Protein backbone atom coordinates (compact mmCIF):
# COMPACT_ATOMS: atom_id res chain seq x y z
CA UNK A 1 0.00 0.00 0.00
CA UNK A 2 1.37 3.39 -1.01
CA UNK A 3 1.53 5.58 2.13
CA UNK A 4 1.11 8.68 -0.05
CA UNK A 5 -2.32 7.50 -1.34
CA UNK A 6 -5.39 7.77 0.87
CA UNK A 7 -6.82 4.24 1.40
CA UNK A 8 -10.39 5.64 1.36
CA UNK A 9 -10.62 8.07 -1.57
CA UNK A 10 -7.52 6.77 -3.39
CA UNK A 11 -6.26 10.30 -4.06
CA UNK A 12 -2.72 11.46 -3.35
CA UNK A 13 -2.49 12.85 0.17
CA UNK A 14 -1.82 16.57 0.45
CA UNK A 15 -2.44 16.84 4.19
CA UNK A 16 -1.94 13.75 6.34
CA UNK A 17 -4.19 12.73 9.20
CA UNK A 18 -2.46 10.21 11.48
CA UNK A 19 -3.75 8.54 14.65
CA UNK A 20 -2.02 6.46 17.30
CA UNK A 21 -1.93 3.46 14.95
CA UNK A 22 0.25 5.46 12.51
CA UNK A 23 -1.91 4.69 9.46
CA UNK A 24 -2.30 7.90 7.41
CA UNK A 25 -5.36 9.04 5.49
CA UNK A 26 -6.09 12.36 3.82
CA UNK A 27 -7.42 15.28 5.83
CA UNK A 28 -10.73 15.40 3.93
CA UNK A 29 -11.58 11.76 4.67
CA UNK A 30 -10.47 12.13 8.29
CA UNK A 31 -12.89 15.03 8.79
CA UNK A 32 -15.72 13.05 7.20
CA UNK A 33 -15.03 9.98 9.35
CA UNK A 34 -14.91 11.98 12.57
CA UNK A 35 -17.98 13.99 11.62
CA UNK A 36 -20.24 11.34 10.14
CA UNK A 37 -18.59 8.00 11.01
CA UNK A 38 -18.03 5.00 8.76
CA UNK A 39 -20.58 2.77 7.05
CA UNK A 40 -20.73 0.42 10.06
CA UNK A 41 -21.60 3.27 12.39
CA UNK A 42 -18.21 3.57 14.17
CA UNK A 43 -16.71 7.02 14.72
CA UNK A 44 -12.99 7.79 15.03
CA UNK A 45 -11.75 4.34 13.98
CA UNK A 46 -8.81 3.78 11.64
CA UNK A 47 -10.16 2.46 8.30
CA UNK A 48 -7.09 0.22 7.94
CA UNK A 49 -6.83 -1.52 11.34
CA UNK A 50 -10.05 -0.37 13.07
CA UNK A 51 -8.11 1.09 16.01
CA UNK A 52 -10.09 3.62 18.02
CA UNK A 53 -8.26 6.97 17.81
CA UNK A 54 -9.38 9.55 20.34
CA UNK A 55 -7.42 12.20 18.44
CA UNK A 56 -5.44 12.54 15.23
CA UNK A 57 -2.53 14.71 14.09
CA UNK A 58 -2.81 16.81 10.93
CA UNK A 59 0.41 17.19 8.94
CA UNK A 60 1.20 18.69 5.52
CA UNK A 61 2.73 16.43 2.89
CA UNK A 62 6.28 17.63 3.71
CA UNK A 63 6.07 15.62 6.93
CA UNK A 64 6.44 12.07 5.69
CA UNK A 65 5.38 9.15 7.91
CA UNK A 66 8.35 7.31 9.43
CA UNK A 67 8.99 3.99 11.04
CA UNK A 68 10.22 3.89 14.65
CA UNK A 69 13.83 3.39 13.52
CA UNK A 70 13.59 6.18 10.95
CA UNK A 71 12.14 8.52 13.55
CA UNK A 72 14.92 7.70 16.05
CA UNK A 73 17.55 8.34 13.37
CA UNK A 74 15.84 11.58 12.37
CA UNK A 75 15.72 12.87 15.95
CA UNK A 76 19.31 11.93 16.87
CA UNK A 77 21.35 15.10 17.32
CA UNK A 78 24.55 15.53 15.29
CA UNK A 79 26.49 18.42 16.85
CA UNK A 80 28.98 18.66 13.96
CA UNK A 81 26.39 18.88 11.20
CA UNK A 82 23.81 20.63 13.42
CA UNK A 83 21.23 18.10 12.27
CA UNK A 84 18.47 16.46 14.28
CA UNK A 85 16.93 17.62 17.55
CA UNK A 86 19.23 18.40 20.51
CA UNK A 87 18.57 17.02 23.99
CA UNK A 88 19.34 18.67 27.33
CA UNK A 89 21.72 16.29 29.11
CA UNK A 90 20.32 17.33 32.51
CA UNK A 91 16.55 17.34 31.83
CA UNK A 92 16.52 14.88 28.91
CA UNK A 93 14.13 17.30 27.20
CA UNK A 94 14.23 17.37 23.38
CA UNK A 95 14.23 20.66 21.48
CA UNK A 96 13.42 21.46 17.89
CA UNK A 97 16.50 23.59 17.20
CA UNK A 98 19.86 24.19 18.87
CA UNK A 99 18.89 27.80 19.62
CA UNK A 100 15.91 26.51 21.61
CA UNK A 101 18.28 24.38 23.69
CA UNK A 102 20.53 27.41 24.33
CA UNK A 103 17.52 29.42 25.54
CA UNK A 104 16.52 26.57 27.86
CA UNK A 105 20.05 26.29 29.29
CA UNK A 106 20.28 30.03 29.95
CA UNK A 107 16.96 29.89 31.82
CA UNK A 108 17.38 26.60 33.72
CA UNK A 109 21.11 25.82 33.82
CA UNK A 110 24.49 27.57 33.43
CA UNK A 111 26.38 28.10 30.17
CA UNK A 112 29.98 29.32 29.90
CA UNK A 113 29.66 32.23 27.46
CA UNK A 114 33.44 32.51 27.06
CA UNK A 115 33.71 28.93 25.81
CA UNK A 116 30.55 29.33 23.72
CA UNK A 117 32.04 32.37 21.93
CA UNK A 118 34.87 30.04 20.85
CA UNK A 119 32.37 27.41 19.63
CA UNK A 120 32.96 25.16 22.66
CA UNK A 121 29.81 24.00 24.47
CA UNK A 122 30.35 23.87 28.26
CA UNK A 123 27.17 23.54 30.36
CA UNK A 124 26.86 23.10 34.13
CA UNK A 125 23.91 22.15 36.28
CA UNK A 126 24.87 24.29 39.29
CA UNK A 127 26.29 27.79 39.56
CA UNK A 128 29.24 26.86 41.75
CA UNK A 129 30.34 24.35 39.09
CA UNK A 130 30.41 27.17 36.53
CA UNK A 131 32.47 29.33 38.91
CA UNK A 132 34.98 26.51 39.40
CA UNK A 133 35.22 26.20 35.63
CA UNK A 134 35.89 29.95 35.36
CA UNK A 135 38.80 29.66 37.81
CA UNK A 136 40.35 26.58 36.20
CA UNK A 137 39.87 27.42 32.51
CA UNK A 138 39.79 31.24 32.35
CA UNK A 139 41.00 34.32 34.25
CA UNK A 140 38.99 35.59 37.23
CA UNK A 141 39.41 39.04 38.77
CA UNK A 142 40.44 38.54 42.44
CA UNK A 143 39.25 42.03 43.47
CA UNK A 144 35.75 41.46 42.07
CA UNK A 145 35.62 38.07 43.79
CA UNK A 146 36.53 39.68 47.12
CA UNK A 147 33.61 42.08 46.65
CA UNK A 148 31.18 39.20 46.09
CA UNK A 149 30.94 39.41 42.28
CA UNK A 150 32.42 37.36 39.46
CA UNK A 151 34.30 38.90 36.53
CA UNK A 152 35.92 36.43 34.15
CA UNK A 153 38.05 37.07 31.05
CA UNK A 154 39.33 34.90 28.18
CA UNK A 155 42.94 36.17 28.34
CA UNK A 156 45.33 37.37 31.01
CA UNK A 157 45.86 40.62 29.09
CA UNK A 158 42.17 41.53 29.30
CA UNK A 159 42.14 40.69 33.00
CA UNK A 160 45.16 42.97 33.59
CA UNK A 161 43.48 45.80 31.67
CA UNK A 162 40.31 45.36 33.74
CA UNK A 163 42.23 45.40 37.01
CA UNK A 164 44.29 48.46 36.04
CA UNK A 165 41.19 50.39 34.99
CA UNK A 166 38.70 49.30 37.67
CA UNK A 167 40.89 48.35 40.64
CA UNK A 168 43.97 50.55 40.28
CA UNK A 169 44.26 51.26 44.02
CA UNK A 170 43.86 47.63 45.05
CA UNK A 171 46.00 46.18 42.27
CA UNK A 172 48.82 48.69 42.68
CA UNK A 173 50.73 46.43 45.10
CA UNK A 174 50.22 43.22 43.10
CA UNK A 175 53.66 42.22 41.72
CA UNK A 176 52.00 40.28 38.89
CA UNK A 177 51.02 43.63 37.34
CA UNK A 178 54.48 45.16 37.55
CA UNK A 179 56.35 45.48 34.26
CA UNK A 180 60.13 44.85 34.00
CA UNK A 181 62.16 47.83 32.75
CA UNK A 182 65.83 47.39 31.81
CA UNK A 183 68.19 50.28 32.55
CA UNK A 184 71.64 50.49 30.95
CA UNK A 185 74.37 52.68 32.42
CA UNK A 186 78.02 53.37 31.61
CA UNK A 187 80.81 52.60 34.09
CA UNK A 188 83.52 54.50 32.21
CA UNK A 189 83.12 57.64 34.30
CA UNK A 190 83.38 55.70 37.54
CA UNK A 191 86.49 53.84 36.33
CA UNK A 192 88.19 57.07 35.30
CA UNK A 193 87.62 58.51 38.75
CA UNK A 194 88.95 55.30 40.29
CA UNK A 195 92.17 55.28 38.23
CA UNK A 196 92.84 58.97 38.81
CA UNK A 197 92.63 58.32 42.51
CA UNK A 198 95.36 55.65 42.33
CA UNK A 199 93.41 52.53 41.39
CA UNK A 200 95.03 49.58 39.67
CA UNK A 201 95.53 50.03 35.91
CA UNK A 202 94.85 46.31 35.22
CA UNK A 203 91.41 46.74 36.69
CA UNK A 204 90.93 49.79 34.43
CA UNK A 205 91.96 47.88 31.30
CA UNK A 206 89.56 45.03 32.06
CA UNK A 207 86.59 47.26 32.77
CA UNK A 208 87.29 50.38 30.67
CA UNK A 209 84.76 49.51 27.98
CA UNK A 210 82.27 47.56 30.09
CA UNK A 211 78.74 48.90 30.40
CA UNK A 212 76.55 47.81 33.27
CA UNK A 213 72.86 46.96 33.10
CA UNK A 214 70.22 45.79 35.52
CA UNK A 215 66.46 45.24 35.59
CA UNK A 216 63.91 46.69 37.96
CA UNK A 217 60.17 46.12 38.19
CA UNK A 218 58.05 49.25 37.99
CA UNK A 219 54.40 49.56 38.95
CA UNK A 220 52.49 50.31 35.77
CA UNK A 221 49.00 50.61 37.31
CA UNK A 222 46.91 53.64 36.47
CA UNK A 223 46.63 56.24 39.23
TrEMBL record:
MF (Gene Ontology): ribosome binding; ubiquitin protein ligase activity; zinc ion binding
Chain coiled-coil ranges: none
Transmembrane residue ranges: none
GO biological process, one term: rescue of stalled ribosome
Pfam families hit by this protein: RING_ZNF598 (PF25447)
Domain of life: Eukaryota
RING-type domain location: 6-50
Sorted UniProt keywords: Metal-binding, Zinc, Zinc-finger
Matching PANTHER family: OS01G0568000 PROTEIN, ZINC FINGER PROTEIN 598
Protein name, as recorded: RING-type domain-containing protein
Biological source species: Hymenolepis diminuta (Rat tapeworm)
